[in-house]
Design goal:
Length: 358
């Protein structure tokens, strides 16, 4: 393996080329229009499940690898370690294999087995801890033990992404909306895992001076909502989110509350009901974090209609539901985790009839 400074620089140059080439081979993700019964309000889903690794986290993993490579943190012999609830680890395992690097994912033991299988398929190794609050220290310890690099998505997500443009997710949304009835979204609704996506979109709309507002939907047990509402970074819940990919037990360094216009806490059972509701309308399975986003988007549509407003709402289809067949889509798993989506499914049925989510 290359050892001299010149050889190391040549390896980094080639690694950056490989990551950039992967991006060039990937077409932009689709924007689906979802017909609503709410008059005057249009809903769109940015389909991030079509990335090579099947989720929104493919964008993040690419940015994190480029950031680490250009900072000189990753070299030809580096073991890459990440703390993750699953999807970021799948995407990072993909890029690690692309560069010929070992990869270790530290994640809660309850991470869906479908995600674990994907990480291992991409050549990564899974290291389990009991709760989400343990992943940070354990990932750092493992990286130090093997003289590797702890990628630390929860710190670097918001700074690794070019929020000014360069075909980031925000720029893509506005370009794809250009020919729609309401081309400038009234609201963009996202969940928060690292906070990187809400930071990118929130900064972009301010930089481009769009009147768009950013709403973050947060699941039960997450610290983000209470931290944002009280303007405190010290909020800690210690709980693991039951909605994989979003919600954290602490306020992550990448969460930028100042670029968020509103937040809503979505009950986990509502996320499950909205996951099924969205899957039925799209004719394909979506994951639970997409359900969280859609529930918040329908509440926003109801609020807009009540105020006599018209416009468009854009949210994210974060990943496909095939990753959750043994968990969030399994009635036995839901019962074991005390989740009953039936009352929320009834509210969605009433929404279909009235155009108002009560």
């Amino acid at each position: 393996m290359p050892k001299t400074s010149t050889e190391r620089r040549a390896w980094i140059d080639e690694a950056v080329r490989l990551v950039e080439a992967d991006a060039n081979r990937s077409a932009d993700t689709h924007l689906h229009a979802l017909t609503l019964p709410t008059p005057g309000v249009d809903l769109y889903l940015k389909d991030e499940s079509v990335h090579p690794t099947g989720s929104l986290k493919h964008r993040l993993a690419r940015s994190l690898f480029l950031y680490a490579l250009c900072n000189g943190w990753i070299g030809p012999d580096t073991t890459v370690v990440e703390a993750s609830s699953g999807s970021t680890a799948v995407s990072e395992a993909y890029f690690a294999r692309l560069l010929g690097l070992p990869f270790v994912a530290v994640m809660p033991a309850e991470t869906s087995r479908e995600k674990v299988a994907l990480i291992e398929w991409h050549g990564g190794r899974c290291h389990f801890v009991e709760s989400a609050a343990e992943v940070y220290d354990e990932a750092r310890r493992l990286a130090e033990a093997c003289d590797g690099h702890y990628m630390d998505q929860f710190t670097y997500a918001e700074r690794a992404t070019d929020w000014r443009g360069n075909n980031n997710i925000a720029e893509s949304i506005f370009e794809q909306m250009a020919a729609e009835r309401h081309p400038i979204p009234a609201w963009i609704v996202v969940g928060a895992g690292t906070g990187g996506t809400s930071a990118t979109i929130g900064r972009y709309v301010r930089y481009r001076r769009h009147p768009t507002s950013v709403l973050v939907a947060d699941p039960e047990g997450s610290a983000f909502y209470d931290g944002w509402r009280t303007d405190s970074a010290a909020v800690v819940t210690g709980a693991s989110s039951r909605i994989e990919g979003i919600g954290r037990p602490r306020i992550e360094p990448s969460f930028v509350g100042g670029v968020i216009d509103d937040m809503v806490r979505v009950p986990d059972a509502a996320s499950i009901a909205a996951m099924a509701w969205t899957s039925a309308r799209l004719g394909r399975e979506v994951g639970p974090s997409t359900g969280t986003n859609v529930w918040a988007a329908l509440l926003t549509a109801t609020r807009m209609a009540a105020a006599g407003e018209s416009g468009s709402i854009v949210t994210l289809l974060c990943d496909g539901g095939e990753r959750y067949r043994a968990s969030h889509a399994d009635p036995a798993w839901l019962a074991a985790h005390d989740l009953d989506p039936a009352p929320y499914a009834e509210r969605l049925a009433a929404y279909d009839a009235t155009g108002r989510l009560a």
